[in-house]
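It would be a great kindness if you could assist me with a short task in structural biology. The matter concerns a single protein, recorded as an amino acid sequence and a row of backbone structure tokens. Kindly check, if you would, that the fold set down in the tokens agrees with what the sequence suggests. Thank you for your consideration; the sequence and its tokens are set out here:
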Amino acid sequence: MRTWLQLGTILLSLSFSSGVFATPTVRISLAGVGIVQSSEWSAGDHVRDGAGEFAVFLRVAQLQRAHRSAGLVAVGDRNGILRSGGERALRRIVLTGIAVVKLAPGGEIASDDHALFLDGQKLPASAATTVLARCLERHGPPPAVRDPENPSPNELAAIRAHLQPFQTAITLASSERIAQR
């Protein structure tokens, strides 16, 4: 006599072979780039704490679900900083293989400790998105570190080296845009 466990295993295997639990075929494109904007912020407003962080992680998850490689264009404040935890999330995702272009409308982006963010210079967000998508398709995503909390100097150097052609393409696109004016 068969046990309930054996019967369950048989039914489960029949379900998978008949396609009941089969995953739908999803067409995954090569590179996807999204735009995130700095959240509204005011001192002492604890309601918005973490809103920027959540927005970044949510957008990355959406992109990774539909694309083989993902990138973000982060439109921050006048220093390019995303408020309400957004900057913390950007530092985390850039170490996990996501390329990030930072834009500072009306200003210059603040330098980061590890120099892992791409400077979008004076490009509009739509143009930065296009350049980043082309770079991801051509060069692939940057390498991820083993432990995002403790990246090694070699891992950081590998990310910076991989992103160098990305920064060159952004600089070229920005200079072409200025020349067209």
